[in-house]
Design goal:
With about 240 residues, the protein is an all-alpha fold. It has 14 helices and no strands. It is elongated, with a radius of gyration of 20 Å.
Length: about 240
């Protein structure tokens, strides 16, 4: 009896950042095709998960960053309409979850993660956090977590600040920066974000942290704890001098 091939999500859950993610074939990007295929998947009968995944795989092979944004706009337009919008978003979310759980195509993982960022709930943070730990999916999963309208998304990003991969952590920091008004985010960005990060990667984000988190004020604050001041000094070490 042949074993059922492992989904990419299961592979990442098992092997983490070391999971071997195979390259998949991509066609010409087309936002209209992506949106149409997803709508087709949403209309399939409940329980037909294999077909849902197959249709999402067709969509997952036809996007790039620009196309992805355009397709998401098409799919979520009208979401403000009472009842109708909520029903549509729920169907979109449920279909994306099925695709993410079953696909073996990296393009589909990227697409489903982006859709969950736009239409997901706090229940999707755990799976997006898992995917973000793999360098192949950090960009799309961390972006989705940043877009979630729930605190759980930011909490996942804060935990991802422990990533050892420099470029991946830079992506996570970048996706946290829009949320600096939240005290827990400011604290983590100043105190923890650059600890252990190679200088070449730290320089990519240090200036933004210094400006958005008013890091100089922390150093001058006699009530600030020493670990926070140490983090602030590290940020300023790598930041472009601020006039």
């Amino acid at each position: 009896m042949n074993a059922i091939p492992e989904s990419l999500l299961d592979l990442v859950r098992r092997d983490g950042a070391a999971a071997a993610v195979p390259a998949d074939e991509r066609g010409a990007p087309d936002a209209k095709v992506v949106a149409e295929r997803i709508r087709t998947a949403m209309a399939l009968a409940p329980g037909d998960d294999d077909r849902v995944v197959a249709v999402w795989d067709e969509a997952g092979a036809r996007h790039d960053p620009e196309t992805l944004d355009a397709a998401l706009t098409q799919l979520t337009a009208g979401g403000w309409v009472p009842f109708v919008g909520a029903h549509s978003r729920r169907g979109l979310r449920d279909s994306a979850r099925i695709a993410l759980a079953g696909t073996r195509q990296a393009g589909t993982v990227e697409l489903a993660a982006a859709v969950l960022g736009a239409a997901g709930t706090k229940d999707d943070a755990e799976v997006l956090e898992t995917l973000a730990q793999h360098p192949a999916f950090t960009l799309h999963a961390a972006t989705a977590l940043s877009n979630l309208a729930h605190w759980e998304g930011r909490a996942s990003l804060l935990r991802l600040l422990r990533l050892d991969d420099g470029p991946s952590r830079v992506l996570v920091i970048d996706r946290l920066l829009p949320h600096v008004r939240e005290a827990a985010v400011r604290l983590a960005l100043v105190r923890d974000a650059l600890v252990g990060l190679a200088p070449e990667h730290a320089r990519e984000v240090a200036t933004d942290i210094a400006v958005l988190c008013t890091v100089k004020d922390c150093i001058d604050d006699p009530g600030a704890p020493e670990d926070l001041k140490a983090g602030a000094r590290l940020v300023l070490t790598h930041a472009t001098p601020i006039q």
